[in-house]
C-alpha cells in the first residue's frame, strides 16, 4: 500500500468546513484561509483548502464564526446525592448539551460521607454514563470524607484513571469539610498535579441567618437569597485563597457570584498565586427578584450561591470575564423538575414553604453557550474571550489535551454559528419547549436570542443541525475522556514552605 500525501486532490476527507471565521482565544482566521479538513475524527489541517481534497461531506459556514466545541466543566448529571429528586440523567443532559453547542461535559462523581473508598463510586458513574451520553464526558471527584487512605492511596489511582480534579465544599452539612481537611487535600492534590475545586460559602454564617429567618416565619423561597449573603461568599473565597497560598496549590473557585469575591480572586492572581475562578450565566443575567413569585415559582431560581440583588453585581461579573479574572464560564447545570413533589416542590409541604428543603440548582447546560454569545453581540466581551472561557481554558485547565482548539491533531469538536444578521436565522424569545433537557422550566424563559449553534460536531460527526432535523447524534456517541494533569497556572515555587511533605516523592514533573 502506498502512503498518500494529504495534499492531493484525490485524497478524501470525511468533512470539509468552508468559508467560516475560525476563532481562537487570540485570533480570527478569515476565509479563504479558514477551511477545515476533518478525517477520522480529528482535524487534519486548516488553511485555504478548496480544490485540495474531496470530501464525503461539505458544510458551508457562510461567514459565521466557527468555534471549538463548548466544554462545560461544571455539570451535575445522574448524581447519586440527588436521587429521589428529579433531575437530568446522562441521556437527557447530554442531549441538551449538544443542542447548545457543548461537545464535552465534565460531570461530578459523588462520594457520600459513608463511602470508605471512592473507587467503586467512579465505577458506578462510568456505568451511568457509558452508552447514555450524546457528547464526550469526563469526571471530577467530589470528596465529602477525605480519609487518609483515600487521600494517600486513592487519589493517585484517580489520576491514573484520568480523573485529575477534586471538588470540595465549605458549606452544606452533608458535604462540607473543615479547613484542616481542605488543607490536607490541597497538599495531596498539589503533589499529584490535581486541581482542587472549591465551593466557597461560610456555612456558619448561613446557618445562623437561616435559624433567625425560620424563627420569624420567613421561609418563602426568596429568603434563600437573604440567608446566603455576599459576605459569606467573600469570606470563604478569601479563606480558600489563603489556604491555597499557604500550600501553593492550584485551585478553582466555582460559580463565583459576588464582586468582592471576584476582587479577592483578581488580587490573588496579581500576586501570581495559582488561583482560578469560574462564573455561570445565571450570575450574569438573573437577579434575586426572580425568587419572588406566585405559586412557589421562586423555587425555580433557588441555587447556591444565590442570585444577587443588583445590576452592579451582574456588571462586575461581566467585567471579570472581560478582564481575565474568570478562567472559565460553566453552567453548573444542577437541574430539578419544578412541578414534582420530589423536585423543587420538596420545599412546599401542605401549602407551607420551607426554603431550606428546596433542592439547590438550575438547569442551564443548553443555554450556556448562546447566553455567553449574547455578551459578544452586546459588546461586553470579544468572540475570542468567548472561546477562551467556554472552550479553550476548560480544556487546558482540566487536562483535556485533545480538545478546546481548532488546530491540526485535535479532536474535531466544532460549533458553527450563524453569520450575524443571517437571513437563515430569526431572532427568537426562548421557551422551555425549545430545549432538550428533561426539566419542566428554564430560568431563561422569554430571553431574546440573536444566535444559536447551527451545527455541533463531535469528533467529525454532525450531532446537531438546527435547520436539518435538530438532534442527529445518538446516546452512544459520547466517549469517556481520560484527562492528563492540569495546568494553566501552576505553583511557582518548588521550594515552597519547607515543611510541606514531598508527597511520597511524587512531585509531578510539570512543576519543575
Ligand atoms: C477586573 O474585574 C474584577 C472583578 O469584577 C474587578 O474586581 C477588578 O477591579 C477588575 N480589574 C480591572 C483592572 O478592571
Ligand atoms: Zn455545582
TrEMBL record:
Pfam families in the record: Amidohydro_1
PTM summary: Carbamylation allows a single lysine to coordinate two divalent metal cations.
GO terms under cellular component: cytoplasm
NCBIfam families: D-hydantoinase
Origin: domain of life: Eukaryota
Alphabetized PANTHER family for the sequence: COLLAPSIN RESPONSE MEDIATOR PROTEIN (PTHR11647:SF1), HYDRANTOINASE/DIHYDROPYRIMIDINASE FAMILY MEMBER (PTHR11647)
Keyword annotations of the record: Hydrolase, Metal-binding, Phosphoprotein
Ranges where the Amidohydrolase-related domain occurs: 65-463
Molecular function in Gene Ontology: dihydropyrimidinase activity; metal ion binding
Cofactor(s) this protein requires: Zn(2+)
Family assignment from sequence similarity: Belongs to the metallo-dependent hydrolases superfamily. Hydantoinase/dihydropyrimidinase family.
UniProt entry tagged with the keyword Phosphoprotein: yes
CDD domains found in the cross-reference section: D-HYD
Organism: Coleophoma cylindrospora
Catalytic activity: 5,6-dihydrouracil + H2O = 3-(carbamoylamino)propanoate + H(+)
Residue numbers carrying N6-carboxylysine: 167
Protein name: dihydropyrimidinase
InterPro entries given in the database record: Amidohydro-rel, Hydantoinase/dihydroPyrase, Metal-dep_hydrolase_composite, Metal_Hydrolase, Metallo-dep_Hydrolases_sf
Top-rank EC class of the record's enzyme: hydrolase
EC number: 3.5.2.2
Keyword Hydrolase: yes
Amino acid at each position: 500500500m502506498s502512503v498518500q500525501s494529504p495534499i492531493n486532490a484525490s485524497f478524501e476527507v470525511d468533512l470539509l468546513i468552508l468559508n467560516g471565521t475560525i476563532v481562537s482565544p487570540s485570533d480570527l482566521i478569515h476565509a479563504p484561509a479558514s477551511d477545515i479538513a476533518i478525517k477520522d475524527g480529528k482535524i487534519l489541517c486548516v488553511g485555504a483548502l478548496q480544490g485540495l481534497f474531496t470530501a464525503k461531506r461539505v458544510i458551508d459556514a457562510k461567514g459565521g464564526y466557527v468555534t471549538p466545541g463548548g466544554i462545560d466543566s461544571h455539570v451535575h448529571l445522574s448524581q447519586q446525592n440527588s436521587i429521589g429528586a428529579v433531575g437530568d440523567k446522562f441521556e437527557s443532559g447530554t442531549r441538551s448539551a449538544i443542542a447548545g453547542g457543548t461537545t464535552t461535559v465534565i460531570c461530578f462523581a459523588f462520594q457520600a460521607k459513608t463511602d470508605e473508598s471512592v473507587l467503586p463510586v467512579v465505577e458506578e458513574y462510568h456505568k451511568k454514563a457509558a452508552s447514555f451520553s450524546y457528547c464526550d464526558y469526563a469526571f471530577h471527584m467530589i470528596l465529602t470524607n477525605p480519609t487518609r487512605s483515600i487521600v494517600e492511596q486513592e487519589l493517585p489511582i484517580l489520576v491514573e484513571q484520568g480523573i485529575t480534579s477534586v471538588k470540595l465544599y465549605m458549606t452544606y452539612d452533608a458535604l462540607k469539610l473543615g479547613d484542616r481537611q481542605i488543607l490536607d487535600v490541597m497538599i495531596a492534590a498539589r503533589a499529584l498535579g490535581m486541581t482542587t475545586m472549591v465551593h466557597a460559602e461560610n456555612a456558619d454564617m448561613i446557618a445562623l441567618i437561616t435559624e433567625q429567618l425560620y424563627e420569624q416565619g420567613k421561609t418563602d423561597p426568596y429568603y434563600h437569597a437573604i440567608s446566603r449573603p455576599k459576605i459569606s461568599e467573600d469570606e470563604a473565597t478569601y479563606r480558600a485563597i489563603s489556604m491555597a497560598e499557604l500550600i501553593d496549590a492550584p485551585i478553582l473557585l466555582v460559580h463565583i457570584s459576588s464582586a468582592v469575591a471576584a476582587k479577592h480572586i483578581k488580587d490573588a492572581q496579581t500576586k501570581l498565586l495559582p488561583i482560578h475562578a469560574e462564573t455561570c450565566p445565571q450570575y450574569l443575567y438573573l437577579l434575586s427578584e426572580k425568587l419572588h413569585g406566585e405559586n412557589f415559582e421562586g423555587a425555580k431560581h433557588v441555587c447556591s450561591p444565590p442570585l444577587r440583588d443588583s445590576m452592579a453585581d451582574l456588571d462586575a461579573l461581566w467585567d471579570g470575564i472581560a478582564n481575565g479574572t474568570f478562567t472559565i464560564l460553566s453552567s453548573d447545570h444542577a437541574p430539578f423538575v419544578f412541578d414534582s413533589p420530589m423536585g423543587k416542590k420538596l420545599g412546599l409541604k401542605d401549602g407551607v414553604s420551607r426554603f431550606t428543603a428546596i433542592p439547590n440548582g438550575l438547569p442551564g447546560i443548553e443555554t450556556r453557550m448562546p447566553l455567553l454569545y449574547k455578551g459578544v453581540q452586546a459588546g461586553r466581551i470579544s468572540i475570542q474571550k468567548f472561546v477562551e472561557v467556554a472552550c479553550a481554558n476548560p480544556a487546558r485547565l482540566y487536562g483535556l489535551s485533545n480538545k478546546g482548539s481548532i488546530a491540526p491533531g485535535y479532536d474535531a469538536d466544532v460549533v458553527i454559528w450563524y453569520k450575524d444578521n443571517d437571513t437563515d436565522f430569526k431572532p427568537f424569545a426562548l421557551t422551555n419547549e425549545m430545549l432538550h433537557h428533561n426539566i419542566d422550566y428554564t430560568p431563561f424563559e422569554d430571553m431574546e436570542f440573536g444566535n444559536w449553534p447551527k451545527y455541533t460536531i463531535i469528533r467529525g460527526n454532525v450531532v446537531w443541525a438546527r435547520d436539518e432535523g435538530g438532534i442527529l447524534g445518538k446516546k452512544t456517541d459520547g466517549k469517556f475522556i481520560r484527562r492528563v494533569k492540569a495546568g494553566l497556572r501552576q505553583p511557582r515555587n518548588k521550594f515552597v514552605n519547607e515543611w510541606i511533605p514531598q508527597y511520597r516523592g511524587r512531585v509531578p514533573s510539570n512543576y519543575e
